[in-house]
Specification:
519 residues, nine-stranded mixed sheet, 33% helix, binds NADPH dihydro-nicotinamide-adenine-dinucleotide phosphate, binds 6-O-phosphono-beta-D-glucopyranose
């Protein structure tokens, strides 16, 4: 890395060289995609500004994008290419403070274009894109590989996919045609199925990239390596040794400027259907036959298929939904959810959920998985903690510190990425005084590529490992249907902003004689 913390790489070799090309990032070889054009629908939006363009800039600056590459931004806003470049320059400066590099920006900006676009007008796809794309492809010699990235509200997905397909833009006559679909994929099981059917009427599964950016976080990618590249953990990874598992995705931020979306979604759709369930799958899946996207997806689907159904009659014993009231976060007073701008005064949208789920398989029978996620909690922490059973025989009954704490493995997804194993040791100088000590590994310099950099690289490369497959998406919606149907009917638990969550969630896990790890 250089002084700005940016990754230093060798200059790209000649792209005419056949076969996959790699860049060395520290000790890793990362494949560089083939020449391509990336078309972003929703280029005036928040995601493009905060994530996509900054990530693409960093990739380009580090030599991870092909030189023969262009980005065409589109949206309803009227703007020239020059204005778009200026807006994106501002966005990159805001997203990467201190890491802006004028020379690298000028080189990148030369690959950026903009076109005003009406998503509902079929002519915009045939006559519009039909004219612009060949021009850009000829200028940048991209050879017809096209990636269509849908960074638009989910309400517009169907129109765009239909119009792309009807215009023949899903065909792969001259190069690849990939479609990248942002989350949420559907609003419930029925709409996810409809969207899957629609997208499949024009695209094959291997052309479709459904985003769950959690899968692309380094520490999430690490879960499989941790489990299957070490022989010491996997023999213990089952009901015989594990008492329970906790998965937490806690945020201290509120809904920020996304009230319109969040009011419709709520935490179950926003975080559980995708991110939290994907973490559950990676923690619980059986070893895949080989480390390929499809075999890993097969195992994830099996986990979701084995989830015990939530009983509708006694749902409250398994699920707590909550909403934050006013409170303080990081020493700052913040309003209740219902007082946030754009939120209805009587909104029943849950901003917190805790669930107790079981996976009905030989490996996991009767091992509870406690899942929780929420906005405006005491801290930002995403982690998976695996709690082992107590020692079978109390050989040291009169330890000074009380009962012997069971061993725990914590996979820290963010922040402070790393992992730790807690075990008991004898305190020096005492006869029987045990002390739990952590053995910790921290990622030394943070991550090499952030989640959106991985997502962008892989959707161009055509690698599905970090994306979700049709069956998993539908299985996750199906499992959550009773919870979604109960929202608005059951009373919502309340929790103060900046707290650990509702007391009902403490009771949910407490009834089983267990406690949440503090946030
Ligand atoms: P924005 O609300 O900022 O809008 C994105 C783009 O969609 C804008 O270019 C906007 O164009 C366009 N748009 C908005 N409404 C319509 C409409 N009715 N018809 C046509 N175009 C419209 O959304 P985000 O950028 O926040 O999100 C984009 C996608 O990414 C969504 O699917 C979201 O769920 C997902 N996502 C976003 C995250 C984020 O942090 N922002 C995180 C994870 C996923 P115009 O300027 O013309 O209105
Ligand atoms: C998004 C959700 O998918 O993930 C947001 O829509 C949430 O509500 C975000 O804040 C969390 O992502 P991260 O990477 O900040 O943990």
């Amino acid at each position: 890395m250089d002084q700005r913390g940016e990754i230093v790489v060798e200059r790209p070799p000649d792209e005419a060289v056949a076969g996959p090309r790699y860049r060395r990032l520290e000790t890793c070889e990362i494949e560089v995609p083939n020449p391509a054009g990336l078309i972003i629908f929703g280029a005036s939006g928040d995601l493009t500004r905060r994530k996509l363009i900054p990530s693409l800039f960093r990739l380009s600056r580090n030599g991870m994008l092909p030189e023969r590459f262009f980005i065409l931004g589109t949206s309803r806003v009227s703007m020239t290419t020059e204005q778009f470049r200026a807006a994106m320059e501002e966005a990159v400066q805001a997203a990467l403070p201190g890491a802006f590099d004028r020379q690298a920006w000028d080189a990148f900006a030369g690959h950026l274009y903009y076109s005003t676009f009406d998503y509902g007008d079929p002519l915009a796809y045939t006559a519009g894109l039909g004219a612009i794309l060949p021009r850009l492809e000829s200028r940048h010699q991209t050879g017809g590989n096209r990636i269509f990235y849908l960074a638009i509200p989910p309400t517009v997905f169907e129109d765009v996919i239909h119009n792309l397909g009807a215009a023949g833009l899903s065909r792969e006559d001259r190069g690849c045609s990939h479609v990248v679909i942002e989350k949420p994929f559907g609003h419930d099981l029925a709409s996810a199925r409809r969207l899957n059917r629609l997208v499949h009427s024009f695209y094959k599964e291997d052309q479709i990239f459904r985003i769950d950016h959690y899968l692309a976080k380094e520490t999430v990618q690490n879960i499989l390596m941790f489990r299957f590249a070490n022989s010491i953990f996997e023999p213990l990874w089952n009901r015989r040794y594990i008492d329970h598992v906790q998965i937490s995705a806690a945020e201290s931020i509120g809904i920020e400027h996304r009230a319109g979306y969040y009011e419709e979604a709520g935490v179950v759709r926003d975080m559980f259907q995708n991110h939290v369930f994907q973490l559950l799958c990676l923690t619980a899946l059986e070893p895949p036959a080989e480390f390929t996207a499809d075999r890993v997806q097969d195992e994830k689907a099996k986990v979701l298929r084995s989830l015990r159904r939530f009983p509708r009659e006694t749902l409250a014993e398994h699920v707590v939904l909550g909403q934050y009231s006013e409170g303080a976060v990081d020493g700052r007073d913040v309003p209740a959810y219902r007082r946030e701008e754009g939120v209805a005064a009587g909104s029943t949208t849950p901003t917190y959920a805790a669930m107790r789920v079981f996976i009905d398989t030989w490996r996991w029978q009767d091992v509870p998985f406690y899942l929780r996620s929420g906005k405006r909690l005491a801290g930002r922490k995403t982690e998976i903690s695996v709690h082992f059973k107590e020692v079978p025989h109390a050989l040291f009954p009169d330890t000074v510190t009380g009962p012997i704490e069971p061993n725990t493995i914590v996979l820290k997804i963010q922040p402070d990425e790393g992992m730790s194993l807690t075990f008991q040791t004898k305190q020096p100088g005492t006869k029987v005084c045990l002390e739990p000590v952590p053995m910790t590994y921290s990622y030394p310099r943070g991550v090499l590529l952030d989640a959106y950099e991985w997502v962008l690289l892989d959707c161009i490369l055509g690698d599905h490992m970090l994306f979700t497959r049709e069956d998993s998406v539908e299985l996750a919606w199906s499992a959550l249907t009773p919870v979604l149907e109960s929202a608005g009917q059951a009373p919502l638990a309340s929790y103060a902003a900046g707290s650990q969550g509702p007391s009902e969630a403490t009771r949910l896990i407490g009834r089983d004689g267990r406690a949440w790890r503090p946030l």
